Amino acid sequence: DADVTQTPRNRITKTGKRIMLECSQTKGHDRMYWYRQDPGLGLRLIYYSFDVKDINKGEISDGYSVSRQAQAKFSLSLESAIPNQTALYFCATSDGQSSNYGYTFGSGTRLTVV
Amino acid sequence: QKEVEQDPGPLSVPEGAIVSLNCTYSNSAFQYFMWYRQYSRKGPELLMYTYSSGNKEDGRFTAQVDKSSKYISLFIRDSQPSDSATYLCAMSVRYAGGTSYGKLTFGQGTILTVHP
């Protein structure tokens, strides 16, 4: 099993619908992140959580919300999807220690809003 | 202005070429610098990381950081078709009083294609 699992892998939804993207991890990391990737724009941070009780907005949080249900689970919701939220979404985890650099990413969810 | 700017490419090189990938940044508080490699339809994977200015070598890959110029580079020697991917630079501040790093800010990514 993958260390970071994202579901669904692909999703097509209609404008105005509510949709939830889920992420679970077996790394035991406290920190979890949601990024979106668009061509030419790289990865942009939507929300991040450094522990279960800590939720922070990233640079592009408008139109999104998150829930940290447990250390291992971090969900991203689009309350009312719009076409410009069509993108590739990645969940990532880290323990944040300089002895163990880097994030572990999931395989991504490709979301299309029509 | 974005905090991190990456040469967008795309780059197309013949097998065996030396590849140079570059990023500049504006936030002088960045102290952790990383390069990620992303294959098509996959999540990014950490390739190299460094904390200080100077060079760090790992096989065919060399990461270079120049904090005075706010410039980082990744060099790939003897490039292979398997190196074809999107390369992303990323960086983070260091939290005061600790050894931990915070959220990563990524560059836009450079698509590299190495032709046999």
Structural class of chain A: mainly beta
Q: Based on the structure, what is the oligomeric state of the protein chains?
A: heterodimer
Shape of chain B: globular
Report low-confidence residues of chain B grouped into runs of 5 or more.
none
Q: pLDDT average of chain A, as an integer?
A: 92
Structure class of chain B: mainly beta
Summarize the helix and strand pattern of chain B as letters.
EEEEEEEEEEE
Order of H and E elements of chain A: EEEEEEEEEEE
Share of helix among residues of chain B? under 10%
Summarize, please:
The complex is a heterodimer of chains A (114) and B (116). Helices cover 0% and strands 57% of the residues of chain A. With 114 residues, chain A is mainly beta.
Describe the structure.
The complex is a heterodimer of chains A (114) and B (116). Chain A has 114 residues and is mainly β. In chain A, 0% of the residues lie in helices and 57% in strands. Chain A has no helices and eleven strands. In chain A, strand 5 (42-51) and strand 6 (54-57) form a beta hairpin. Chain A is globular and about 40 Å long. Chain B has 116 residues and is mostly beta strands. Chain B is built from no helices and eleven strands. In chain B, the strands form two sheets. In chain B, strands 2, 4, 5, 9, 10 and 11 form a six-stranded mixed sheet that branches. A five-stranded antiparallel sheet of chain B has the order 1-3-8-7-6, with no helix packed on it. In chain B, strand 4 and strand 5 (45-50) form a beta hairpin. In chain B, 35% of the residues are buried. The interface between A and B is medium-sized, with 24 and 27 residues.
